[in-house]
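Researcher: I'm preparing a figure for a lab meeting and need a structural model of a single chain. I don't have an experimental structure, so a prediction will have to do for now. The sequence is pasted below. Please return the structure as tokens so I can convert it later.
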Amino acid sequence: MLNELSIKNFAIIDELHVSFGDGLNVISGETGAGKSIIIGAVSLLLGDRATAEMIRTQADTATVEAVFDITANKPLREKITEMGFAAEEELIIRRVISHAGKNKAFINGQMATLANLASVSELLINICGQHEHQVILNAENHINILDEFGGCLPSRVVYAEIYSQYQRITIQMEKLKYLRSSREEKTDLFKFQLKEIQDINPQPAEDTALADEKKIIVNFQKLSGWANHAYDLLYSEKDSAIVKLKEVQNQIKEIKKIDANLKLADTDIEGSFIALQEAALTLRDYSKNLFFDSERLTAIDERLELLNRLKRKHGGSIEGVLRRKQEIEEDLNKVFSVEEELEKLGKEEEKIRDDLRQSALKLSQIRKQAAKKLQEAVEKEIHALNMPHASFHVNFNKCAADKSVESFDPTGGDEIEFYLAANKGEESKPLNRIASGGELSRIILALKNVLSRTGSVASIIFDEVDNGIGGAVAEIIGRKLKDVSENHQVICITHLPQIACFGDKHMYVSKKVVKGRTITFVEELDNEQKIEEISRMLGGVNVTKATREHAREMISGSKA
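Model: Understood. Here is the structure written out token by token.
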């Protein structure tokens, strides 16, 4: 339930705070005072897109914040927790719109996305305005409305899972059929690519190893010179390291003849001597094995060229070439086994087709039962709304039984549209061809009243519900709104006193010019102020004693 709404610098609203209550909340006031702007602000909290044009002139940012009581809304609290937000008895949603384009949304103080807001709104509040009218009038939405009303969604989920399996199998079969149709061409291509790789027979990291070997051959003179020089320094020269180390060894022996306390073992020097000698011999042997092999260099270049050609064609690396070889082998296996695979999938497809048809027929039967209940419920509401001869019909333009499985869609095999005959003797017509604004408002209200009994939202906002109606019909609609408010919090914007008199709480919206700026005000009316406002709605500018008495009678009658 929506408890509090705060708006700052939004459209013509400077700063506004509105408190709502249980039951029917009525909002009335002057034309252009900002009544619908309040609904627009709520829409922002439910995930609607925001633009900088919404910010009040001369302000940098606009802020909209609402506090909802979700104590009794367990599904919503669970969803909020699943989304990672703190779930408390109160839900606080805030939107900030900035000229800098850095718009922000918050759920219970945590940053949120528009998708988060839209997800929350599904269980929070529903706005029945011009947009909602268009949703209900659009025939594409009628099947969803019927399924939700009739409790068809569990069966529809089962159907959708089978439909998904059927789609997956048919897509696989189409791919295999295409593969079969171009098998000869593809087989030749695959064989050619595979033979090319097999003939060259690349080995893992072979190009790296060859490049390293080429580097040694090309630089053999430098390597030989460095190795020989190092050998000389270590071993062959008169003052080589080994000769000097031998002198060091002799000096230590002389010292120890006189002073045995020298902590230097003969084995320490001997170990170094052996290590240097082995290093010298290794360098000598290394140098002897170095030579320039022109034939090997040519062979390496030719091999690298072959490998590079393969790399350019297949992935840019030896690893890519080897992966491509494996893929080609797998593709060839698929080509050779396509008939076997098609036969196997064909059997699966035949079974899933039967399952899909049976599931669609079952869903269609459930829908027909739900359609009958919806027709009866809506007609009852329409008749109570002073359309005694109107008839509402859920028309099955096509049923699952009349269609092939190939023409089924994710919702099933039924094509559904709502029809209405407003008067006796008239032919039923699609809802979107209803000409009268009053008839349209009443059919929308009737549908909303019926659907609200099965819906999960706690609050419903009616904007423009009184479009094109008046008199006795307006009073009937007022009573219907009162009925809806028995199960939901209802917020209704109206200019009709026949509806306003039913309000449990009445708020008056006005605008004034203060210091050269237009400012919107919202005032909660007490009993006497409510009488004055309904009197104004009845009589216009000149409110008489008789008008006030009429207003009192209307308010009193609304409680009967």
